[in-house]
Amino acid sequence: KKTEKVELKYGSHRIGKRDDAIMERWRSYGLGQFIHWGLYAIPGGEWNGKQYNGAAEWIRSWNGIPKSTYDSLIYKFDPIKFDAKQWAIEAKQMGAKYVIFTTKHHDGFCMWPSKYTSYTIKNSPFKKDVVKEVVDAYDAQGIDVYLYFSIIDWNHPGYQAGNAKPNPFTVESWKTYNPFSSKEKKDKYEEFKKFTRNQLVELLTNYPKAKGLWFDGTWDPAWMKQDGFTDSLEKELRALRPGLIIGSRFRADENGSRHFDSNGDLMGDYEQGWERKLPNKIEDVHGNDWDCVMTVPENQWGYNKAWKGHIKTSNELIEMTAKSVSLGGNFVLNFGPTGDGSIRLEEKKLASEIGNWMKTNGDAIYSSTYAGLEKQDWGYFTKKKGTDKINMIIFNTPISGTYRVKLPAGTAIAKSYQLASPSETLKVEEIHANEYFIHLNKTKGATPFVIVLETTKKV
Ligand code: FHN
């Protein structure tokens, strides 16, 4: 954070965290599901037998494909196996507490029957409102729904990415930067802004159960230059739905600063910059709320037939979940259903393995957060909110079979046990002031597990 603050009209409007119950619920999630589903699921990263090297949901931007040919995929979208209720059941089994669903990705195809464009699900052979089915099915399972919305819209005639950002990119150069190469383009973009605003109001009106909006594609310079418009639109959306959760990806301030304004203050309810990466230490998150969104392969969000490269295992994903919670964040795992609406077997398997682990160990993830303790070699500490319970989530079993724990002065361990077997208490040895050995005598293990420390004040 900067110490000398500059005057900002469109910077952050709140310093510090939100303290309402809705945001507190968001903080308790621990684990979420992301779903990227749209027309791109039909080609699945392959066009005329050729593999596209980028992320499957970006295939429309591939030079080899005429845009109108891609857009006519609308006439092929008929996912006969789509069953939102089953998706929601499986997400619940995995232990997800919230879902982020792509209502519209960069290709502009709307998964709801928007009245502002004809490029929607309504004009596909499927016809049904997918967003409604997802919202209702997940809500029925007690999973909170967030609507992903891409500002980039390759299908809208008024949309444009804008001229390249000034280089060097400074407060001065940004002031005079013009994203539009002609007056006509600028006027068309005004239409696009109205369209975007109408769609967002439409989404909030149609799906009152949704808890928040998850924005993407807001790095376009043309959008970044709309400081006054985006600021008032965010206010309008928040007024329309009190309690609405919006992350830091929606808008830029008047100097072109995104996520954090020119004073270093977060613009939004939580930090949305942790995509396919995790913080390493608590200082990295600057005391903000945050979540991490993660793909199973390196960088594929929509369905890709050929999953190439390293495919993460359930243990890796569980470790990322534990690490996120230990640093005060949530972890969101992405799924890319196929063009017929089914979830690929590899993803189903991961979901069920994560779910099995969560059934026994989820107590160390849900309503848990940073414990205020230094990270240890065996894994991650989390603290159960509102209790004196500290969890040790173990990923590396020490050869000695003992776990060294250093607690703050004045803290004693009243009781210790594994979450998997609470009735078997573990021997706790105080080796010197506030430093303990937990004797589990477990030296091998292929599955992460949790040791609970019930702490008390030392007398
Ligand atoms: O370009 C998109 C990408 O396709 C995907 O939707 C991710 C999800 O966070 N967001 C963008 C890249 O940051």
From TrEMBL:
- Per its record, what are the GO molecular function terms? alpha-L-fucosidase activity
What SMART domains does the entry give? Answer: Alpha_L_fucos (SM00812)
Write out the entry's keywords from A to Z. Glycosidase, Hydrolase, Signal
Which range is the signal sequence, renumbered to this chain?
none
Does Secreted appear among the keywords?
no
GO biological-process terms attached to the record = fucose metabolic process; glycoside catabolic process
Question: Pfam families attached here?
Answer: Alpha_L_fucos
Residue stretches making up the Glycoside hydrolase family 29 N-terminal domain:
6-363
The record's Gene Ontology cellular component field reads:
lysosome
Entry-linked InterPro entries: FUC_metazoa-typ, GH, Glyco_hydro_29, Glyco_hydro_29_N, Glyco_hydro_b
- According to the UniProt entry, what is the EC number of this protein? 3.2.1.51
| Function recorded in the entry | Alpha-L-fucosidase is responsible for hydrolyzing the alpha-1,6-linked fucose joined to the reducing-end N-acetylglucosamine of the carbohydrate moieties of glycoproteins.
Similarity comment: Belongs to the glycosyl hydrolase 29 family.
Q: What is this protein called?
A: alpha-L-fucosidase
Which species does the entry assign this protein to?
A: Pedobacter frigoris
